[in-house]
Amino acid sequence: MLKKFKNIVLVGTSHISKESIxxxxxxxxxxxxxxxxxxxxxSRFQSIISKKRQKISLVEVRKIGMKGFLFRVIGAWIxxxxxxxxxxxxxxxxxxxxxxxxxxxxxxxxxxxxxSITLRNISKRITxxxxxxxxxxxxxxxxxxxxxxxxxLNKVPSxxxxxxxxxxxxxxYPTIYQALISDRDQxxxxxxxxxxxxxxxxxxxxxxxxxxxxxxxRTLKKWSKKTVGRN
Length: 231
Fold this sequence. Notes:
Blueprint: E1 2-5, E2 8-13, H1 18-31, E3 35-38, H2 42-50, H3 58-64, H4 66-86, H5 92-103, E4 107-110, H6 115-125, H7 128-142, H8 159-172, H9 174-198, E5 204-209, H10 213-230
Helix pairs in contact: 1-5, 4-6, 6-9, 8-9, 9-10
């Protein structure tokens, strides 16, 4: 999934699909950007390039909250489970972007919100209803095979499919949606807007999860209209 806005090319990916790796590689080679922006914060970036699984200390658990910590552990487990179904290590498209940036001597920009902030917000906001629903859905995932899923894990979901999934997530898990999607859309939009303003004659390829594309594009367009209005 590709979306363009001014000098930014947004590449919407699925973190466990072969199609995403190919899309990232093709887009970077075709667009020849000056900057590759990636949906990572510094800690996750370091984890990827060092190829070591991040260990969370007791101090960090206290910082993000037990609910945020459990959400991270369960989320990582689900990603690994789905990744095994496709044969792709979660985040491989990000690794491809980093690898190409180094090979082609392209600057890397880390645009995502610090994961500790995201997890802390989940800890603070999640309701009892969402907790029970989350446990129910996790248990359902344990017994779900690739054949039972109504989505092709090897491909990036269509815009329509993403829209349906986003609406369901927002309805069932409003506080998680706010922390996991909306807040990060705003953070990444701000980072991309700054990069765009500071590199008006350059080109930016931003590699982000497909679920963030519409939110980021909508925010960038809204800010652009306000700027034009002031002028």
